[in-house]
Amino acid sequence: MELDWNLPENTGICRQVSESSRMNRATAKRLIERYFRQLTEGCGNSNCTNEFCASCSNCQPLDNNAAAAKALDLFKVNAKLCDYYPSVESRSDENSLLGSKMSAEEFSDVHYLTEHTVCRILSRCEEEGNYSALVHVIGRIFSNADALIKSFRKEEPSATKNLDSLQSKEEEKQSDQSSEKVFSSASSPDETPNGVPNSCEPTVDIDAVRRVYDKLLSIDQVESALVNALIYLTPNVELDLEYLDVYETNPDYLNIFIIVMENSNLHSPEYLEVALPQFCKAMSKLPLIALARLSKLWSTCGLPHIRRMMETFQQLITFTVLSNEYGMENLVNDDETVVAATKCLKVVFYASILGGEVDIEHNEEDDEDSESDELTLHELLGEDRLYKKGPRIDPLEKELGVRPIDCIKPLIPFEDFINESVNEVIEMDKDFTFFKVNAETKFSFQSCPFILSVITKSQGLYYDNRIRMYSERRLTALYSMVQGQQPNPYLRLKVRRDHIIDDALVRLEMISMENPSDLKKQLYVEFEGEQGVDEGGVSKEFFQLVLEEIFNLDIGMFTYDNDTKLFWFNSSSLENEAQYTLIGIVLGLAIYNNCILDVHFPMVVYRKLMGKKGTFLDLSDSHPVLYQSMKEVLEYTGSLEEDMMLTFQISHTDLFGNPMLYDLKEKGDQIPVTKENRQEFVNLYADYILNNSVESQFKAFKKGFLMVTNESPLKYLFRPEEVELLICGSR
């Protein structure tokens, strides 16, 4: 029955309930309807003792109106809701019906499940040819949070720590237990596969849960009971998490989500309509520390299980998006199911990172300037929320201590987390507003950038850049009015074609020193002696001419690899750092002004721009010949000292072809490379080539890049591969 919320008396009661419980209208309505069904239909348990349940023999029958009023009263006092007892289709044979009742009563004392208990009930049901007892038990346990929390527990370890005198006896006992017990492959040890600490080991025996599901999911009646039980379970779980802080008092509450997510049929149509959306909403209410625990746990589950979870949430998102029509008045951001499933998908996304190859070290020093304590004009005008810097780190990312950029190779490719259906219906102008202004009250998909394509994210970056351009234009107009000067709303560059580098360098250097915020203005280029209005074409030509000049090998700022067709910084360059700062500014301006450049850098350049140092693996892209040589050193099975005679002193040629020696370690010429220290040799060699030898050049280059992009959400939204696409498109 649908309750009539338009009746005056109901409206008054609901307002009172809303004020006292702080529940939203939809949640309150859903809970009251459950009380109503309990009063009119019952829970299905013939032995029910709840006097406010129609299944109880002491319950007074109520008509619909009286039941509706009573449901409101029960809601106000937070009365008990019965466990769910699924109904089983009765057979015409009275003996079969009697047998099913007897079997159900026989297992009525089962208050939680273990693998042994399920096997015992299943064996009994198979003997009788009737699964009603199993259906009743499964429905009752899986619809009750407390019962599910206690189910499928690992065996308690022996208390050897506290009983020193019985240590030998307990060790013997523990040894006996371990011979019988099958430990979960997913029950995490002290660390995740990549070495990230994994605290708060769950108490669920996941292998046992999987074996139980394998047995249960082949039985149609049990499958139906699991679906219905999840529908009854999740509203209570959601309320508990949102208003009672149950996880803080009992961390084992996480067991509910661990057990449910091991159901390999969650992606099936039976779950997609109601059960899975409700489950995702409940899961999204978990506190941050619980989501981090889930992510760490799932990272140890292996690729097949993580991929199944990813596909489950992706399928729900796609199913929901395709089943609805979205527009300016009905945004996908307001769809609770899509939002909740996206938040759940984020947990799997970080599990994929944690379970893959991760390098949480080798970080570049942060060159960004610290924020000033002085009030800006935006803050004085009360507009600081619109022009504030984008969030630098995701809360879950911070809790886990790992970032997408730290990931060398995830378990699941990043591309698989992109949902095309969402990208097709999202309104990026609205989403950008939620991202920058209403982040506390509205969900933005840019807070989960892994689900968005590069094209969609570039639209968000475009809005951010345009807002800043208009901001600087407005500030210029205000300053000019106060100071009585001619307003200059653009970043104007007047250059000569035959002196384009000198003119651009002098002008941009003056701007960066006197007023760096002018770099945030819209670029307007004018070639001296030529008529024309820059509507984008002139700027594009300017970028191309500057790049051709700077990447000219005769200048010697960069070296060129004929095999890879890529440029790299020349460690022996005679040019000053200002030239490298200029090329950094040019790259930043290209992103800021939405221009594609003909630039050919190895991926390590973009990784370094995003905050990671170059490592041995990066040599495969930037210096493939050297990488292959180093790989041979690592794989060599003979005697390195006798056959290769390498030391920790290396040589390379300068700009004029002269050999130069460099010690990777102090007195490196006296330290031979052996099997024991060859990994250190390779790491130090790569560190020198990619970091130390070009430190001054790259630092100046990055400084110029950050002059334009330091306040941009670029680092938050994009991975290095995507930054390359932004700057120069697909190779």
Automatic annotation (TrEMBL):
Record field: compositional bias (Basic and acidic residues): 167-179
Cross-referenced PROSITE patterns: HECT
Name the record gives this protein: HECT-type E3 ubiquitin transferase
Any matching Pfam family: AZUL
Keywords linked to the UniProt accession: Ligase, Transferase, Ubl conjugation pathway
Stored InterPro entries: AZUL, AZUL_sf, E3A/B/C-like, HECT_dom, Hect_E3_ubiquitin_ligase
Reactions the enzyme catalyzes: S-ubiquitinyl-[E2 ubiquitin-conjugating enzyme]-L-cysteine + [acceptor protein]-L-lysine = [E2 ubiquitin-conjugating enzyme]-L-cysteine + N(6)-ubiquitinyl-[acceptor protein]-L-lysine
MF terms in GO: ligase activity
HECT domain span: 515-731
Family matches, as PANTHER family: UBIQUITIN-PROTEIN LIGASE E3A (PTHR45700:SF10), UBIQUITIN-PROTEIN LIGASE E3C (PTHR45700)
Enzyme class: transferase
EC code(s) of this entry: 2.3.2.26
